[in-house]
Write a structure and sequence with these properties.
The protein has 2 domains: about 120 residues, no CATH class; about 35 residues. Helices cover about 85% and strands about 0% of the residues. The N terminus is likely disordered.
Length: about 160
């Protein structure tokens, strides 16, 4: 009985050791493959961000937002706005966007988007998207102000808020 237990334990130990080595080697190969695939995916995301003009769109939106802030704060000197604009690092921002794309899209989906943006419709989408975004932001700002006014009026009417 002790011999059977010893042999069983020995066989189990040998099997586990060799199996563990095989699993470790397989995992190492998967990690290398996974690392290469992840590098390809990141490079594809960077290409997608580049061809869609994400950096330029971000610069336009930021310029527009700063212009709106500047008009609302006329007492702030131009030197302040210039230095603020210089502090913005769009490349750093893009590096922070990459994991978001990676989280929601597979590499195959990213490749599909790249293929789409190489078509005439994709190129048109890239070309007109900044204007669509700019007009949408303006509508959103106007609409937001109207909603804020209605909320304030309703709060005042119901006695929750008093203007000074």
């Amino acid at each position: 009985m002790k011999i059977k237990l010893f042999v069983s334990t020995l066989l189990l130990s040998i099997f586990t050791t060799f199996n563990g080595v095989a699993v470790a080697q397989t995992l190492n190969n998967v990690n290398i493959l996974s690392s290469n695939q992840e590098t390809e995916k990141i490079n594809n995301i960077k290409k997608l961000l580049e061809i869609t003009g994400t950096k330029q769109i971000s610069q336009q939106i930021t310029t527009q937002m700063l212009a709106n802030m500047k008009s609302n704060l006329p007492q702030v000197p131009q030197k302040f706005w210039d230095s603020l604009q210089e502090e913005i690092n769009y490349d750093e921002m893009l590096e922070q966007i990459i994991p978001i794309y990676s989280k929601y899209f597979t590499n195959e989906e990213i490749k599909g988007m790249l293929d789409f943006y190489e078509t005439p419709l994709g190129k048109k989408t890239i070309r007109v998207m900044p204007q669509i975004m700019q007009e949408s932001v303006q509508i959103g700002q106007t609409y937001g102000k109207k909603v804020a006014e209605r909320v304030i009026n309703k709060l005042e009417a119901e006695g929750y808020l008093r203007r000074p």
